[in-house]
Design goal:
Largest sheet: 8 strands, parallel
CATH superfamily: Metal-dependent hydrolases
Distance between the termini: 14 Å
Number of domains: 1
Radius of gyration: 17 Å
Number of strands: 8
Low-confidence stretches: 257-261
Structural class: alpha/beta
Mean pLDDT: 96
CATH architecture: Alpha-Beta Barrel
Shape: globular
Oligomer: single chain
């Protein structure tokens, strides 16, 4: 059994066939899908899915590339959403120096504001970091963040050690399976299994066998199989450990069991 800890079924590419996508996920052993918000609209949609689908949970947050022109009333709306049932984290939030769509000052201010929201509500953070390693770590250290996950990890071993030293989890997605990504597989080998989560980040980053296609939670198994090989453990052990990690971080309870066929 597996948990997709970072999915975007709340995004438009899944509007037409969401039921079929969830059904396929169940067939591969997925017992929970956490749909992650990137702005107020997708956060609200994540909550709607969580209320309709037993398999789904939600997070709410403003992605760093969506932080321009936010007002106090927007952050209040976010806080209201964060207190809805089945919301398990604040995210995805963080810093993105790659796309350069929003000033760094605004991104930092929004990141810090959402960190404070997570602290007030006792929720973990799902952290987006792209080309902003030192700045991200500096904020997390200053705010003494101990509860969260560095989503879609792509850094080197030194960055991984810094993330783990804060007490955070590290999450791997389909890019772990890419043929030219040996450096990331080397990092994954060194990280304790007890600090790893699995994710798809769908519809983005499909695993190697599905390159060029829309990613979906049912493809998580490819990443799990690659990680099990890297760690030298059985797929069952990997599933049990990463599932427990996700349950511990996000406080997931009464998860549905995979039905026997």
């Amino acid at each position: 059994m597996f948990i997709d800890t970072h999915s975007h079924l709340n995004f438009s590419p899944f509007e037409a066939d969401i039921k079929e996508v969830i059904s396929r996920a169940k067939e591969t052993g997925i017992i929970a899908i956490i749909n992650v918000g990137a702005d107020l609209s997708t956060s609200k949609r994540a909550i709607e899915l969580a209320q309709k689908e037993d398999l789904c949970y939600a997070t709410v947050g403003i992605h760093p590339t969506s932080t321009n022109n936010l007002q106090d009333k927007d952050y209040q709306k976010l806080e209201d959403l964060a207190q809805k049932k089945k919301v398990v984290a604040i995210g995805e939030v963080g810093l993105d120096w790659f796309h350069n769509q929003v000033s760094r000052k605004i991104q930092k201010e929004s990141f810090e504001r959402q960190i404070l929201l997570a602290e007030r509500l006792g929720l973990p953070l799902i952290i987006h970091n792209r080309d902003a390693n030192s700045e991200t770590l500096a904020i997390l250290k200053e705010k003494k963040i101990r509860k969260g996950v560095m989503h879609c990890f792509s850094g080197d071993i030194n960055f991984a050690i810094s993330v783990l030293s804060l007490g955070l989890y590290i999450s791997f997605t389909g890019n772990l399976t890419y043929k030219k990504n040996e450096s990331l597989r080397t990092v994954a080998k060194e990280i304790p299994l007890g600090k790893i989560l699995l994710e798809t980040d769908c519809p983005y980053l499909p695993p190697q066998p599905k390159r060029g296609k829309r990613n979906e939670p049912g493809f998580l198994l490819y990443t799990a199989e690659e990680l099990a090989k890297i760690k030298g453990v059985s797929l069952q052990e990997l599933g049990e450990t990463t599932t427990k990690n996700a349950q511990d971080l996000f406080k997931l309870q009464r998860l549905p069991r995979r039905q026997k066929t």
